[in-house]
Fold:
Amino acid sequence: MGTLQARAQIGEKGRIVIPAAMRKALGIGEGDTVELEFKDHELRISTRRARIRRAQESVRHLAPPGTLVSEELIAERREEARRE
Structure:
């Protein structure tokens, strides 16, 4: 996806309207919750889904190809339960 840019004015009580094209790109709608992060003098708006996906991608290299970490976790839990 290309870069989307817009200019917005801060409204009453610090409110800002996210342009429709950006809401669509983020996959958010009225009533949804977004995550806000202020870092290096920039405000970032993202969805929880996007943050989870970014975290998964950052650790993907730790699991061998074809491995389902969830299955390994379930197997570990079953082994722990068996030992109890």
